[in-house]
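for ur thesis appendix - Prepilin-type cleavage/methylation domain-containing protein. copy paste whatever u need, i formatted it the way the template wanted (i think)
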Amino acid sequence: METKQARGHAVPRGMTLLETMVASALAIIILAAAAALLLAGGRVVHNTEHVGDSHDHARLAGEALLSAVRQAGAGMSEGLWVVSAGVPQRINPVFGGDGAGTGLLTATTTGNVPGTEGTDDLWLVVPDRNYLGRDCAPGAAMTVVQPGTGSLQVNCVGTPSTAPAANAMLVASNMKSAALLTQATVVSSPPTATVNYLETGVPGFSNAPHKGGFQRGDLVYTARLLHFFIAPNPATGGRKALMRAEGIPATDAAGRPFMDMGDPLVLQDFVEDFQVAFGVDATNSGDPSSYVFQDGLSPEFTPGLRSVRISVVATGRNPRRDTQNQAVLAEDLPIAVENHTPPASATADGYFRSLFSRRAELPNLASASL
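the 3d part is after this line
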């Protein structure tokens, strides 16, 4: 009876060896495909993040430059008088070297050594944006009350609120032309004060030599000399970065009237190229479409300077690679910008390049902008 019942039911059995091998092979294939898809997806995400990183670096560097450019030259539409080698010289408050230039157009970097990377540099004379809100601080916006040359007599109803900076610099401007006063001190004796500066003894030095000196009503306010350039950053293994240095009046290696003072500040890492083109309205037409752009602008005063075109090229932190993570992407090469062409021998390095290029007007250098 038991034997018949046993024969009437299916007898459970396990998988044969062949079935197990087939199932295992299929599982391995599926897992391998999933792993490959996951790795490829991760590489795509990494590359996408790198592109976004590159865009951010270029945009942040470009916007920082444009912000400084728009402030430059307030009260200096007809030039800035400085003392160079003991002689008064009228210069542009905005000028810069060309990476492919020579002489005065040579781009200089930290240490005031001519650059070798083909990038440009840019000098800006920028007034302290807060000067109108101060009360008789050293270099605050004070008004000249006695015309002439030499030490300036200005209105000052209080006691200077702070000590002058170690590299104090003032600009005395009639809202057209200006003069750069270095190592200035303000000695208050209300209701006036005396502004002393190193160029006091230079014959005829002022913001308006043709008028016989400074005039009553001229404004005196603080200013900074800003120098932008590309240089390696040791903190990132020598990768290039956009740098900013504070400057002082002195002759640099290219013979220009400003020189870096101290170590530069890293403004933005992973910026490998910086190019500037200067737009000049030679015919004074006032039509931006007629500006003539040139690479590099010497310090010597250039009538009609109205615009600059800023271009920066930045990369991400890490190189992009193919989906197998075996090689960098072949299309990631240095790019040509303005008049800077990378060497023909340049090889793919996997760094995606983002170009930020904007044209900015120089509102402070337009004669109508007072």
